[in-house]
Structures are given as structure tokens and as C-alpha cells.
Amino acid sequence: MKKIWGTAKPTLLITLLLLVAPLRVVAGEVEVLHWWTSGGEAKSVAVLKQLLEKAGHKWKDMAVAGGGGESAMTVLKSRVVSGDAPTAAQIKGPTIQEWGDEGALTNLDAVAKAGNWENLLPKVVSDVMKYNGHYVAVPVNVHRVNWMWANPAVFKKAGAKIPTNWQEFAIAAEKIKQAGLIPVAHGGQPWQDATTFESIVLGIGGADFYRKAFVDLDSKALNSPTMVQSFEVLRTVQQYTDKDAPGRDWNLATAMVIKGEAGMQFMGDWAKGEFTAAGKKPGKDYICMPAPGTAGAFTFNIDSFAMFKVKDKSAKVAQNDLARIIMEPEFQEVFNLNKGSIPARLGMSMAKFDDCAKESSADFVSSSKTGQLVPSMAHGMSTFSSIQGAIYDTVTAFFNSDMSAKDAAAKLDKAVQGAK
Ligand code: BGC
After folding, report:
1. What is the CATH code for 144-300+372-419?
2. What local confidence, expressed as pLDDT, does residue 16 receive?
3. Which of 142, 42, 24, 20 is nearest to 93 (CA)?
4. 47, 143, 144: which to mutate for ligand 1, most atoms within 8 A of CB?
5. Does the fold of domain 144-300+372-419 match that of domain 28-143+301-356?
6. Whole-angstrom Cα distance, residue 328 to residue 242?
């Protein structure tokens, strides 16, 4: 018997190997272009890398620093123009359509069908992921942009109340200033100015006005008394930032709130990723509140990876696996726990998420029913990039000069109409 096994073993092994061989994963490489370089962001993207490697593939990281992704998009353009597209790139919103028009994106319908994406994504999300009715991108999350992050110890020290509207904001900010602390942690970069501004517009004008201005690009809304008032509030906010704000990265601004140097920051919930990475707990070490005047409304910002056409067969296998993994519950949960966002996939348990994420999830659903779910202008969800750029330019020019609010609204309308 022993002898039989002794001779049979190698043959058996070879037979087994031959049987298994066709089922083996063809290891491929994916090059992934993204701009997740802060502490919380890096922790989040590492989850995707690990899962892809677990599936037997190689991850080539192409991280381009710069919050909001402007630099990453510049690098992407030059890579594609020179015929060297990455396998996947962090591209969002209408910009996906622009890349579709270029004929650069690949069809993911087979992966989507196998993974039942059509039933697992809210329509507001799946619409963005398709070009001409075909899946070309896959969503990792839903970020809420209209948040305010506050340090309760700073407010306590200043005897200030956490504001729920922009009048209360001005009162609280003055008290914090009097207490010798920085009221608003801000980084003076165009995308951060625009992030703050869109929350102000939502808080002052409401969701319908926001939509008229930043989705319909309606001249009457852009150059209106409500827009003038919004710029006036932006001026107030700017006056409560510190002298070192120009050029500061967003995560360094978040660190000021974490350390108790500043009272509040207006930023999307990727800021929560920084609090989480620093071991801070919501409700205790920090407070998440909808930006003043925006409770019940939700500016959404969906991060997604668009997939480029690849020639190599093994790279295609790896690319499909990447798309599949992104939509799986394991990734959607762990990534979003780190990132500060909520899963894009429907039906996920929120049990492991904190109260900020639970609030975000509930408000995402309720705002879609009340008409208060709006796409983020500052994060490329509401317009093509050329129009977004025109808005950025005006808001930043206002932020960094003594331009009047009235002139800014007129200039905004002119810039937007000119970019159409
Ligand atoms: C992206 C986030 C990112 C943030 C800061 C946003 O546009 O959607 O994923 O964390 O920029 O870089």
C-alpha cells in the first residue's frame, strides 16, 4: 500500500495541478491614480490595495497629492494624452462623461451584471457611473459635504454655542476670537473656498436655490440678492480665519480643530477620517453638525473609480477584480469606516458606524425624498469641470480681495455664462 502511494503521489499531484490550473487567477497589475494622501485617506485606500493583493494581483500606486483632486486630474490628462492611461482613476460626477466622450473608458457591464449592481446602487449613484447606459465606473462611497466639525472644548472655553444658522455662527465666532482662539480652521485653496461657499449658499438659499445656481446655472439665481447675501457670509467666515490660512492643506486645518487651536471647520466628512485616524470620538472629542442652516439637506459627493481601456489580458482580469471588490460588502464597510463616508452600496448594516455616519445615512435617504439632496458643486458633482473652474476662480478672487459681495455675484454669473 505504502509503495503504491509512494509512486502514485507525484502523478496525482500533477493531475490535481492540471485540474486546478485553468481556475487559477491570472495575476495582473492595476495602476490606480488617486489623491488620497492624508492620514485618514491613506488608511482607507490601503484597504483596497490589500483586498486586491489578496485576490492575487499587484497594486501600482499612483498617488497625486492635493485635496479635491485638481492636481490629480492634471496628471491624469497628461498621462492619457501621451497614451499611458492608468488602469483605474479616481474620477467623479460629470467628469466621467467627459472621459467617456474621449473614448477612453472600458465597459464594466459584465462585472456589474454578475455583481447585481443595478439593484445594489441608488439610481442617483448608478446614473453617474454609466456612460451611454453602460457601466464605466464603480462607486466607493457617498461623502456628505455640508458638515461643520467643531471642538466642544473650544466652544466651552469661549462660552459659545455651536451654531445652527449663519447669524449664530457670527456670534459664536466672535466669542471664540475674544477667547484668544481661532474661530475657523481654513485652508485658503480654491477648492476649500468653494467647499465652504457651497455650504453657505445651501444654508442661506436652501436646496431649490442651490440647484438653480449650481445645477441649472440660472443667471437670475447666480446674480441675485440671495447670492449677494451668501458672499457677505463668506466674507464674515473669511474674517474669522487666521493669517496662516492661505495655501494650508485641508487636513492641517482639521488638525487645528483636533488639537483645540480652532473652533470649527467647514469640510466634507473626509475630515472625519482625520479625527478617526487620531483616535478621536464623535460626540466627545468633536462634534459633527450640518453646516449652519443646512440641517435636513445633503450635498453629495460620490467617489468612484473609472476604468480605462487596457490591452493586456491579465491587466483586464485584475481590473475586473478591482471593480468587483469595490462593490463587495467587506470593502464598502471597512473603507468607509476609515474614510468618514457611508457605503454607496444599498442594504449595508450601519451597526459598526458612528453617529455622524448614521446621521449621514439617514439624511441621505430623507433628503432624497424631500428634494433636499443636491450634488456638490465644489466636488465636481454638479457641473462639468470648466464651469466648476469658473466658479472656483470667482469665489477665490473674492476670498482674497476686498471685492464687494454685489460685484462678486455679478462676476460669478458672467464667469459661469462665459464658461458654458
Ligand atoms: C474627495 C475625497 C477627498 C477630498 C480631499 C474630495 O474631492 O471626494 O475623497 O478625501 O477631496 O482630498
Report:
1. 3.40.190.10
2. 57
3. 142
4. 143
5. yes
6. 43
Strand 304-307 vs strand 88-90: parallel, antiparallel, or unpaired?
antiparallel
Q: How far is ligand 1, taken at its centre, from the CA of residue 75, in Å?
A: 16
**Residue with the three cell numbers 481590473:** 319
Least confident of 19-28, 86-95, 154-163, 307-316: 19-28
- In Å, how far are 34, 45, 62, 66, 79 from 31, measured between CA atoms? 10, 13, 7, 19, 12
Cα–Cα distance list, 308 to 31, 237, 295, 319 (Å) = 10, 41, 38, 9
Could you give the angle at which helices 329-339 and 270-277 cross, rounded to 10 degrees? Answer: 80
Indicate which residue's Cα is closest to atom 7 of ligand 1: 68
Q: Which atom of ligand 1 is nearest to the CA of 273?
A: 10
pLDDT over 80 at 15, yes or no: no
How far is ligand 1, taken at its centre, from the CA of residue 271, in Å?
A: 9
DSSP per position, 323-375 = HHHHHSHHHHHHHHHHHSSB-SSTT---TTS-HHHHHHHHHHHHHHHHT-EEE
Q: What is the pTM for the complete model shown? A: 0.94
- Terminal-residue alpha carbon distance, the chain: 83
CATH class as words, domain 28-143+301-356:
alpha beta
Domain ranges within the chain, ordered by starting residue: 28-143+301-356, 144-300+372-419
pLDDT digits (tens, 9 = 90+) for 356-370: 999 999 999 999 999
Ligand 1 pocket: which of 35, 191, 248 to mutate (most atoms <8 Å of CB)? Answer: 35
The band of 22, judged by pLDDT with boundaries at 50, 70 and 90, is: very low
Is residue 290 helix, strand or coil?
A: strand
